[in-house]
Amino acid sequence: MGLALDIIIAFIVLIIAIILLSGIKVVNEWERLPVLVLGRFAGLKGPGIIYVPPIIGKVPMRISTRLQAISFRTEQSLTKDNVPVIVDAVMYYQPVDLEKVVLKVEDYNVATRLAAETTLREVIGQTMLDELLAERDKVAALARNIIDSKTETWGVKVTSVEIRNVEIPPDLVQAMSRQAQAERERRARVTLAQAEYEAAQKMVEAANLYVNNDRAFMLRWMNMIYELGMEGKNMLVFIPANLPIAGPPTSGPMSPVGLMGVKDLVVSEEKKQEGQQGQGK
Predict the structure, then answer these.
(1) DSSP state of 82
(2) 154 and 111 in contact (C-beta within 8 Å)?
(3) 119, 173 in Cβ contact below 8 A?
(4) Nearest residue to 102 (alpha-carbon basis) of 29, 34, 31, 42
C-alpha cells in the first residue's frame, strides 16, 4: 500500500515537473515571442531562454525581426490606356512595431502581401503602358509609398518594391516591335538625309573656292581622271572634248600640258603619219 502511494506521488510530481518545464522556450536572436497570460498581452520576450507560464500562458506566433521578401503576381489588370497587363513584383518589408504586429492584425505576412497586390493594381490603373514599361522604378516607388502607408497601421515597414516583369498580349508585342522597327528606319533615313545635306554644303563651299582659282579647278579635274585611271589596269576613260586646259595654252610639246593640249598633240601626230603614208605612195 505504501509503495503504491509512493509511486502515485512520484508520477504526479513527474507530471507537474513536465508541465512546469514545458514553459521553457528558446528564442533565436532575430525572433521575438509575444506572450498572452489569461488572454491578456503580457509583452514580448526573447532572445535566449524564456519562460512562459504553462496552461495560463500562450505564445500565438513567432515574429521575425529580419528583413523579409515576398514575390507576388497581380491578376490581369488594365492600364490607364486600357491595355491588359500582368505584373510580377518583389516586396521587401520588416516588422518595426512588434506590439502592433501582434494586436492590430491577424497575420501580418498575409495582410502585407494582399495590400501589396491590391495597391499595385491601383497604381497600374493610373499608369500608361509606355510609362509602366519605361519607368518601372518610378511606378515601383509610388507603389511602395502607398503600401507603406497601409502597413504602418499594423507596424510593418515596407522598404522597397521592385517590378520584375510586365506581361502584355502577344499581338501588342508584335505591334510594338513593328513600331520600333519603323522608328529605326525613320532615324536611318533622317541620318542619311542629314549626311546628304552636309555633303551638299561642303560641295558648295568647295565650288566657291574654285570660283576665283581656275588653275585649282583644272588641277582637280586632272586628279579626278588620274584617280579613275587607278581603278583598273584595262580601264577606258572617256575625256570630254571641251574639258578645260590644266596647263598654259602656249605649252611646248615637252612642257607640262593640259588635257586639251594632249589631244592636240595626238591629232597633230596622226596628221603627220597620214602625210608620210601619202608621200610613200
Answers:
(1) S
(2) yes
(3) no
(4) 34
Cα–Cα distance, 27 to 62 (Å, whole number): 9
**Exposure of 91 by Cβ count < 10 A (0-12 exposed, 13-18 middle, 19+ buried)?**
buried
CA distance 190 to 197: 10
- Burial readout 153-181 (b: 16 or more C-beta within 10 A, e: otherwise): ebbbebeebbbeebebeeeeeeeeeeeee
57 SS3 class: strand
pTM (predicted TM-score): 0.62
CB 46 within 8 A of CB 31: yes
Amino acid at 180: A
How far apart are the C-alpha atoms of 274 and 23, rounded to whole Å?
A: 134
Q: What is the pLDDT along the chain (281 residues), one digit of tens a residue?
A: 667 787 888 888 888 888 888 889 999 999 999 999 998 999 999 899 999 998 899 999 999 999 999 999 888 888 998 889 999 999 999 999 999 999 999 999 999 999 999 999 999 999 998 899 889 999 999 999 999 999 999 999 999 999 999 998 888 878 878 888 888 888 999 999 999 999 888 888 877 877 777 777 777 777 777 777 676 666 666 666 555 554 444 444 434 444 455 455 555 656 766 666 666 55
Q: Which residue has the cell 503576381?
A: 73
Gap between the Cα atoms of 94 and 160, Å rounded: 10
